[in-house]
Amino acid sequence: MGTQERRARERQERRGQILTAARQLFWAQGFSRTTMPEIARAAELAPGTLYLYFPSKDALYIELLIDGYAKLLSRLDAAAHRAGSPERQAGALVEAFLHFAEAEPQYFDIIFFVLQREMGGPHQTLNRDQLERLRAAEEACHAVARSVLRQAPGPDGDAALQVTVEAVWSMLAGVVFFWRRDGGRAFHTVTRRARDLILAALFGSREGAAR
Fold first, then answer.
1. What domains lie within the chain, and their CATH numbers?
2. Torsions phi, psi for 203 (to 5 deg)
């Protein structure tokens, strides 16, 4: 391995180290309470080195959002390509969303909950390229959901479909929130019930009964 390749690999590893430290701190204590010096210490870097990779805490948070959406997209895309009826595909999509919340709780919180718990959030002028990548990552997840939920009966039109996607998104995030708060039931029990209720609302049938 040449010198340039080794340096590129080391830079990528250090970048991952920074993102891991930031994700854990944002998740544990929120965005507004976390400082760049704290992130640098957790990543075992000098503050000046941290700023060479990310110019602000806002930029770090947006990068975590992009990473989180990429992980969610991978699960949603696999669900969308499962063979079967529209109901089965929609059921797989719901399960993929909920299993992402179970398997990647920190990333799930970064996307859906952390900024909802506080008044502050990323507010500085961010790099245009980073913002475009964030919008593209979020849109890719919504596009997969639209491709599946488009098959459900109901009002036609892109506007109505987008409302359906956002409604399902919100319901699933709420399921995760209340499951975590109460903690009295097994996650898979909650997952199955949420899937059955959403499929009944979308298709007028209970997909779980067909399994």
1. 1-54 (1.10.10.60), 56-210 (1.10.357.10)
2. -115, -5
